Amino acid sequence: MDAYGHVNNAIFLRYLEEARIDFLSLRGEESKQGSVVARHEIDYKRQLVHRPTPVDIELWVTQVRAASFTVTYEVKDADVIYVRASTVVVPFDFETQRPRRLTAEEREFLQRYTDDADDADEEAVAA
Q1: How far is the CA of 21 from the CAs of 2, 25, 45, 53, 59, in angstroms?
Q2: Residue 32: which residues within 8 A CB-CB, separation 6 or more?
Q3: What is the pTM of this model?
Q4: Which tens digits make up the pLDDT trace of 62-118?
Q5: What are phi and psi of 31, to 5 degrees?
Q6: Hey, which residues does 88 pair with through a beta bridge?
Q7: Quick check: 50 and 5 in contact, CB under 8 A?
Q8: CA distances from residue 26 to 1, 11, 15 in whole angstroms, order as listed
Q9: What CATH architecture applies to the domain 9-126?
Q10: Percentage of residues in the chain with pLDDT exceeding 70?
Q11: Do 76 and 82 touch, CB atoms closer than 8 A?
């Protein structure tokens, strides 16, 4: 909470990071084949005041490219959206310290969570 009594904008980045890490852990990450954030875009829709109850973070994949993918989020309660955001993630080889292309397995995993996925039950992941 900041001096104005609401959740600070930097904390929202932490919320998004935690949701993204939980999501990516569904697939499992190899120790030297991870990912890094290339870009965040956040639209603050409503003020979120500090409270003991958690908020929901829904996320899905909106774009899969050869060497990046975009995760989109909504931080919300049942009827109120506080934040809409997206993150461009780049696969990264920590051994060589260079970006890399997505593997076939990574692409397959991400495609299951795209906003145009065939199975509506897998469109979004709640964190």
Answers
A1: 25, 6, 24, 21, 11
A2: 93, 94, 95
A3: 0.84
A4: 999 999 999 999 999 988 999 999 999 999 998 999 999 999 999 999 999 998 754
A5: -60, -35
A6: 39, 70
A7: yes
A8: 30, 23, 17
A9: Roll (3.10)
A10: 83
A11: yes
